[in-house]
Amino acid sequence: MELLKLTIRNTLRHKLRSLLTVLGIAVAVMAFMLLRTVVTAWHAGVERSAANRLITRHAVSFVFALPYAYRDRIARVPGVERVTFAVWFSGVYIDKNQFFARLAVDSNTFFDVYPEFIVDPEQFAVFKRERNSCIIGAEIAERYKLKIGDVMALDGDIFPGRWEFVVRGIYRPRDKTTDPTSMLFHWQYLQEWARREKSNRQGQVGWYVSRIAHPDDSAAVSAAIDELFVNSLAETKTETERAFQQSFLSSMGSVMTAMDVMSFVIIGIILLVLANTMIMSARERTHEYAVLKTLGFSGRHIFILIAGESLLLSALGSALGMGATFPAVEGFQGALPKGWFPVFYIEPKTIVFGCLAGLLVGLAASLIPARRAAATKIVEGLRFVG
Amino acid sequence: MPPLIELQNVFKSYRRDALEIPVLKNISLGIDEGEFVAFMGPSGSGKTTLLNLIAGIDRPTIGRVLVGGADLTELDESALAAWRARNVGFVFQFYNLIPVLTALENVELPLLLAPLPKAERRRHAERALSLVGLADRLDHYPRQLSGGQEQRVAIARAVVTDPTILVADEPTGDLDKASAEEVLHLLDRLNRELGKTVLMVTHDPRAAATARSVRRLEKGELA
User: Fold this and answer.
1) Least CA distance to B110: which residue of chain A?
2) Is the confidence at residue A339, as pLDDT, over 70?
3) CA-based, 20 to 30 A from B108: which of A53, A86, A215, B33?
4) Is A3 in Cβ contact with B81 (below 8 Å)?
């Protein structure tokens, strides 16, 4: 007979109470992990930012275009290894609820600067040959059942008209943090349209992306790029990819902060639920703990018994909650419009947070009842009538 | 040869709010090894408090309690707990078995504090239960036993560590006549055959008659 056995038997003494406590913890852990996953997904763009990439955009706003002529001047800045550029195409695919990035890119350089987009060389060669071809992310291909040779038809909004692209490549994301939902096509194809339909939009790009040799030089290189275009018609603002992504997130910052806070409030709620159960249980057993002390068990043993029971309940609840989080995250993602979160998965860090939260809550909830029971004098405990 | 248990000028009082309530007044007492002493007296006379002091589960306000050469008033809480585990076996009026453990597990409980392998612990516990005539009730939970059987399990738990002193607080107070006689017979056997020093608090003159000597307390003083 070990103390562990007594701990387990005590946990099962009030089955309904223990079950409800475990379920309460499970629901709270699931909610905690779901919220953390949403917050993580929201910040995924920042997290996946490469340290060696700089984004150069129009100094006034991202929506204003930059001249194509800037490309070579940026490329000559010391520290810049490779320059590419892109244009936000937008457009409507099937209906307005289908979200994913559609970008016109410089097909000669884009994949050099973004090596995390992995394309089969043969597919890439075909893509480069055909001016109306596109490369799509593996998730887009799966979501819309698209395969090589299929045609994607889009209605342009920023660039009006009916656009048809032939799928010539499907890229694989290098890891889970890479967006698998982009659609990329030739900037030159967009230029042909501009020459035909809107000549004033010829030779424009949305933003430049520079791969730099040393991430530590990002501030100096950024300043050097912006210095080139001071007092021009299109002054630039260059920043690291991370800073660029963060500026996008700032608009939703307060909502995300609220979700962040809520996730920790939930941990507080679990703590109260479990602490309440443990205080009730320990109070009911005051007499028994006094008997154990009479037999020679010390206050430390009593502390271990109560803390052990609390940890067992929190471990069961946390395990159940974590198990339920995976289908809950799937369900949550399914309920959202397609493409809201290009990267949406439970990070290992979130699982570690969930485990740690369960462990800490288990310990913290037992502190008051365990210390109280350990300190109760035997004589008072034996007189106790619950 | 000095007595096994020696109380020197012991006073004990409890504080209830601002009131200081004296329970034991200047008790000096010696009990030799192997004695079977019954403490009798009216309610509130201090019998249980005296037993608690000797068993090391309470401390005197003034005075010294020496048991087997150890001054219990000098020991800190953890040392006192270890001393109790080695030297004292307890029998309570209401048995105080742990309801979620079987008879065998209840008896094994004090042995968890001894450095014994699992098989050895089980063997000791089975032997103690055989001694009290419950070898066929090893896997019964307290709720599946009669009052007399529960008290016998409690006695087995008290003797399983082979303590020097057996302390029984109203051990027959909650039992019918037949069960009470069985329990008293057991205590008598433990005293006579195994040489245990038995200290028993009782209101029952028939129970007291089992003891070799009877000490009376009146208003916190030995009569």
Assistant:
1) A295
2) no
3) B33
4) no
The answer to whether residue B58 neighbours chain A at the CB level (below 8 Å) is yes
ipTM: 0.91
Dihedral sign, CA of A345, A347, A348, A354? negative
Q: Are B186 and B25 in contact (CB under 8 A)?
A: no
**Residues 6+ away with beta carbon under 8 Å from A360:** none
Any bridge partners for residue A92, and if so which? Answer: A155
Q: Min CA distance, A11 vs chain B (Å)? A: 10
User: Contact, A104 vs A86, CB < 8 A?
Assistant: yes
Residue A61 CA to residue A59 CA, distance in Å, equals: 6
Residue B104 DSSP label: H
Q: What is the DSSP letter of B74?
A: G
CB contact B139 to A (< 8 Å): no
The count of C-alpha atoms lying within 13 angstroms of the C-alpha of B205, restricted to the half-sphere facing its C-beta, is 0
Under 8 Å between Cβ of A223 and A240: no
CB distance from B157 to chain A under 8 Å?
Answer: yes
Instruction: Answer whether B57 sits within 8 Å of A378, measured CB to CB.
Output: yes
Task: Choose the closest CB to B112 out of A1, A300, A377.
Answer: A1
Interface contact flag, A300 B78, Cβ < 8 Å: yes
Dump pLDDT digits (tens) for B85-130.
999 999 988 889 999 999 999 999 999 998 899 999 999 999 999 9
